[in-house]
Amino acid sequence: MDAPTWSQGEIAEATGMPKSTVSRLVKFLADRGFLTLLAERNRYSLGPAAIDLGRRASALFDIRGLCRPVLEQLSFETRETVILTSVVGAGGAVRCVDQIESTREGLRVFEQIGSIFPLHAGAAPRAVLVLLDEAERDRYLSRQLAPITDRTLVDPVALRQNIALAEKTGYVVSYGETYEGVTGIGAAFSWSNGCPAGSLAIAIPTPRATPDVVKRSGELLKAACLRVNALLSADSAASQPKDGSQ
């Protein structure tokens, strides 16, 4: 089905589904913006929701390349381990998709690329939780939350207090919540439509994480996420059709 538009009959023929099933499915997708009805021809094309979903999937595949210069700058500025995450699936977790290891002597933090963490556990995941709208956040915090270490915040009241502080400062700080002896500082970035896309984090052995270091790291992360937001917005704008194009 490589054609730009399809009739219900063509969809039924190509998929082998009964026409009644196709009719219900097409209506469902059209109601949600994944298909657009071209009324003059009674044919369907991809709708704005499908186009946006494809753009987001495309950006996700290249998010490492898009963010790599920002990650390298953070690494240069801090010499600590810096981490890039992306939101997983329906948004209940993040996955580490890139990292640059600390160049400092002595204790260093290493994160395995591909590791997945729930949104309540640690700085990088919780930074995404901060960006969720209140209803989504309430739904998440109503779950039974499991700890990763003895210091993982799982109490909804404590989590809300931590989130409220992060909303004021612009970044999340966690202490030993995913790995003992590691302080994490994280901030999140968004797709052009405002939905959380992922986060950047700095992981520091706790003995080096003085208040001044934590504050400086948080400010660097805020600036870095602004740069990523700009990159994602520019990437989205570049993928949109120009005025007058079909």
From TrEMBL:
Domain IclR-ED, chain residue ranges per copy: 49-234
Pfam families in the cross-refs: HTH_IclR, IclR_C
Domain HTH iclR-type residues, every copy: 1-48
Organism, as annotated: Ruegeria sp. PrR005
Stated name of the protein: IclR family transcriptional regulator
Keyword Transcription regulation found: yes
GO process terms (BP): negative regulation of DNA-templated transcription
SUPFAM superfamilies: GAF domain-like, Winged helix' DNA-binding domain
Keyword DNA-binding: yes
MF GO annotations: DNA binding; DNA-binding transcription factor activity
Keywords per UniProt: DNA-binding, Transcription, Transcription regulation
